[in-house]
Design goal:
Elements: H1 8-18, H2 25-37, H3 40-56, E1 57-59, E2 66-68, E3 82-89, H4 95-101, E4 106-110, H5 128-137, E5 141-145, H6 151-164, E6 169-173, H7 189-197, E7 200-202
Parallel strand pairs: 3-4, 3-5, 5-6
Antiparallel strand pairs: 1-2, 6-7
Helix pairs in contact: 1-2, 4-7
This protein binds zinc ion.
Residues 60, 62-63, 65, 72-73, 75-76 line the site of zinc ion (ZN).
Amino acid sequence: MKAQDYPAPVLELITRLKRMPGVGSRGAERFALWFLQHGRTDARALAAALQTAADVVSACPECGFFAQEGKLCTACDDPTRDSSLLCVVEQPTDVLPIERSGSFRGLYHCLGGKISPLDGVMPEDLSVQHLLERVHQHPGCEVILAVGSDVDGEATALYLAELLGRENCRISRIAQGIPAGAGLGHADAVTLMRALDGRRSLGS
Ligand SMILES: [Zn+2]
């Protein structure tokens, strides 16, 4: 006798849901059953939204933040932004915490990670070359290094400061106050605002 279980499509759905961050086995099962018992309209709308997002969202060709395929992101496309301020972050997900702090009106640059030899991430794996090109396009700009304050973040900031030191730009580092080892996503708006306001100049 075979033990009773969900039909294969339900098991497949649970398996897929389980892969999402923060969703364990029980959560995945609960989601799947809710869709089937109460939320079929929502399920179809969610499937369509997922499909659209997966098909049309890509990295902004200028800064690396999320944008619609082939288009600039909202910040890069905004001529009222201060293009003499370039805030360098590790990940696209670091942009919105800064944006929501309301204390920055410049442009962003997402590196795509941080230098971490132990994890096999070297400078050439990051969007460093494009950063240099952008600095070239805005001579005299200020580059704010808003990478994390953990060991890899500091190493990345030092590497970039040395590289950018040969360019026509001012370099600053956001002030401490961001907890060591934590990403920007964990910082509240006030901490981020103070960290940006209290940024210090690097190099000459
Ligand atoms: Zn952009």
